[in-house]
Structure formats: structure tokens, C-alpha cells
Design goal:
It is a single chain. The protein has 96 residues and is an alpha+beta fold. The protein has 4 helices and 3 strands; from the N terminus they run αβααβαβ. The protein has a 3-stranded antiparallel beta sheet. Helix 2 (35-46) packs across helix 3 (50-63).
């Protein structure tokens, strides 16, 4: 019986680690959306000011991607979902 309790504790620890793990919201470059549209989406979804939104849009355009936000998984998933609704290519990645 005690050996059965140990995996449950390990499992619980993994779940807690997963919940406290930070996640990155990343937007990937695409040939479809116009730059001013991407800036508009960043401002609407994240509440960024014009300059910050432009900075991230340029990163996406020049580097192929930009990390827009880092934090808890639930909020990160919400941001990715919102960006995808605006037809941007957004992914979620664990923060190392």
C-alpha cells in the first residue's frame, strides 16, 4: 500500500510544476497579414501601446517570430486562442 501512495505524490508534484511553469506566447511570421493589421491585433489582444506593438511586429517580420507574453499556462492559452481568432499564427512554448 505505501508504494501506491508514492506515485500519487510524484504525480501531484508534476501537476503543480506544470501549473507554475511559465509559458511563452509566440507569434510566427506569415505572408498573409499586413503589418498594420498585426500592430492592431497586438494592441487589441495585449493592450500594448503603438510603439510596443510596432516593436513586436518588426520582430515577427524581421526575425520570423516574437515572444509577446510570458506567464501562466491558462492565460497564455487564452492569448494564443485570441491571436488565432484574429488569424495570426500563434504558438505556446514552455519557458526554459
Amino acid at each position: 500500500m505505501p508504494s501506491h501512495a508514492t506515485p500519487e505524490i510524484v504525480e501531484q508534484t508534476e501537476v503543480e510544476t506544470e501549473l507554475t511553469q511559465l509559458w511563452k506566447v509566440i507569434v510566427l511570421n506569415d505572408p498573409v497579414n499586413l503589418m498594420n493589421y498585426v500592430v492592431l491585433v497586438f494592441r487589441k489582444v495585449f493592450g500594448y501601446g503603438e510603439q510596443k506593438a510596432i516593436k513586436h511586429m518588426k520582430e515577427v517580420h524581421e526575425l520570423g517570430k516574437s515572444i509577446l507574453w510570458t506567464g501562466e499556462r491558462e492565460q497564455a492559452e487564452s492569448y494564443v486562442f485570441q491571436l488565432q481568432k484574429w488569424r495570426l499564427q500563434a504558438i505556446l512554448e514552455k519557458d526554459d
